[in-house]
Design brief:
It is built from twelve helices and 23 strands. The protein is an alpha/beta fold. Strands 12-11-10-9-3-2-1-15 form an eight-stranded parallel sheet. Strands 16-17-18-23-20-21 form a six-stranded antiparallel sheet. Helix 2 runs antiparallel to helix 11 and helix 3 runs parallel beside helix 4. It is globular, with a radius of gyration of 23 Å.
Length: 499
Amino acid sequence: MMCFAARKDDFAYPDYEGPNILNYTFCTGENIRDVFTQLADKEIWDGLTHEDVHMAHAIAASPIWNILPETLQFGNMTEASLLNHTDLIASPHLSEGYILLDETWQKHMGDLEMDPKRFQNMEETVNITRRRGFKIALTIQPYFATESLNYIKGLEKNLWVTQKLPGSKNRLVPALTSYKKTSSAVLLDITKKVARVWIQRKLHELIRKYGVDALFIDFGSTQDFPQHYNFGEILSSPDEYKEIFMKSIKSLGRVVAIGTTSATKSPKLPTFVSMSPSASTWESLQSVIPNILSMGVAGFPFISPGVIGGDFLVKPDSDIENIEYLTNGFNAVSAESAALRKLEVTGKPMPDRELYIRWLELVHFLPVVSYTYLPSEYDAQVVQLAQELKNIRKDKLYRYIKIAINDALTTGLPIIRPLWMSEPTDINCLKVSDEFTIGGYILVAPILMPNVTEREIYLPRGKWRDEMDGSSTKGERWIHHYKLKLNKIAYFTKLEDPT
């Protein structure tokens, strides 16, 4: 028996005054795959251009390098430290992909201009970075610090989300909140046409001035919104804000949003949605596959798994609430969550080497490869492994990732799939949660535990080629005690070539 109820509590969104209605639809089918296929969005392609799809392929082909003050020399983002860091990336022949700067490229969040003291000749820095083989992406937020260059201008143009002045019936004032390290900020009211036109113009100016190639949109969560607020136009839910914002920046021409921290529905390509930030722990590594599979089933086929090694560090003897938030980049958390993470550190802490290697192996089989910590910051063996994985991805995997991206556009099936999407009536496929396939073509079975060099692997029905030794084997069976050294990951190719 199931019981459903609707209840209105102290909902923070004041504009919604409608009835409390919950609608449920129960879907049935011969098996779980049939049910999923019925529900999947088969028109993701609608409104896309060939260039959008090509850009998504390019994002899957090359890594994203998250650049944060904490990862740079002396912990400060300047032109010199940025060029030095890109030189470290390029030196072991890894010079490709996007250099993604977090929001500290601005003096204050919402300036939408480079900090003039730290970036006096950014145009030349961008040119040098491009000559090294990289593209430049900037992180932006819809939050604007009250110290920012645009705050007063926004007041004059009525661009900010407002709230009623306490004690007044009609007077509206900007609704204040905090976000990350910005203690006083306002939120752009993207429901207003004047705000949409303004942000488009500002971003066009930013792109033209510095030669930016892409943007990354950091929304945080609705918990980061002001406590009380009113939009210019009523939304049925504050979550609609993200969708409107993403549509507003779709018109920026060649410059696209390569990623976002959150979404209520899958954004149009080439934007990938980031998984929630994770601690640099084995438990977090073990959660990557279940989380990416869950998001795929929930209707988000284009997922970025986050940075290799985790998004924030944890003391070996601490729990998850005694940490310092170190990484905003391709994954970002709310200020409220970040406030829980406190840890005094000195120097430059790094993820555990074995953990980093196993994470490195796993992520190279996922849609987007994203770094914060560099392989060269460990040793020559880790650099060599990174190069080997890069070649495997390029020579053996990229073809299948590209096919899976194209499949998702018309079938709604995720790029990374649970085994039951291949064999929905196989009880073992329904149970296995630490394996996955790339579009049903490549089966991946990584090591996700410390000090472990073997694992059990289940192969669904069919004929598979073991890419470790090239041997062929039949599926619908377990492989017991499969040996894997620290620098190896198990993967199998289904011997039924995709069309």
